[in-house]
Amino acid sequence: MSSQEIPDENLPAEQGTAHDTVEVADDPFADPGLPAHMPRIQDIDERAAKRSERAVAFMFTLSMLATVGFIASYVIFPVDKIVYIWPFGHVSALNFSLGLTLGVALFAIGAGAVHWARTLMSDVEVADDRHAIEAEPEVKAKVMADFAAGAEESGFGRRKLIRNTMFGALALVPLSGVVLLRDLGPLPEKKLRNTLWAKGKQLINMNTMEPLRPEDVAVGSLTFAMPEGLTEEAEDFQNQIAKAALMIIRIEPDNIKDQRERKWAHEGIVAFSKICTHVGCPISLYEQQTHHVLCPCHQSTFDLSDGARVIFGPAGHALPQLRIGVNSEGNLEALGDFEEPVGPAFWERG
Q1: 171: left (phi over 0), alpha (psi -120 to 50) or beta
Q2: For labeling, which of 33, 176, 330, 344 is most exposed (least CB within 10 Å)?
Q3: pLDDT tens by residue, 266-283
């Protein structure tokens, strides 16, 4: 017979084995309650509390010093300096110092916060009943009262040493992220504003490497040019041509709509930057009938008969125009540099 078929009154009140006895509890899910609160030494000894306060302040101060060390590392150590550090071996002095100082800065803030919470903030356990999502006015008042009590028990207002050093550590650590922007490369200074074009520099045909003459440019043709003196063998050729590359187009003067474009041209020959103002792709697709030029990367379209303004696509502004003329030898020459930076917009554009 199974135990389920035995009447309840015949079941034993205790079930045991040869080794122990198990009593059946009346309510196995009864609330055991909270254990009695055991005060910490900081709760009863103000000198111990002061020692903990100084320890927390030390951690926050250490974080500030490490952050300053992180920033100083950028100035002190060159990028290519290699040092031997046991047991890591030969490592970059800059990378090692950055990792060490930033790690100490973040760890010290965390350790200080944990030590503060474990030794100085209240550790009394509080049980609270669940309530509806929409709080009653009494509950709201209780929350605010609990918040005020927690703020008071944390000693945030009383312990000014901890508060001030914590503010200092939290204020300095974000500077590490600002300094990391240096890894984006050297500051552009005025390098993006200026090109090799200057008054008197001849326009060199990039196909023949000979100076361009007005008769070399036919109506409806597209020619690419670069500044006189720039050669493909130059060490910085790619950087310079990325800013100075030109499109030379000849348009009937009566078809030029923009007054400044007509003034800066020579007998209908206009010179515009070849670099798209969206993301810097080289432009090479020209439509003779409409005088539209198309960037192959993202289809930005410019009207070269109307100041190279944008008529379609994501480009943000027109292509810069270079003012040109003819020198005493009959060759096309620049009358100065571009009036505005070429290529995509950048943060220093003004």
Answers
A1: alpha
A2: 33
A3: 999 999 999 999 999 999
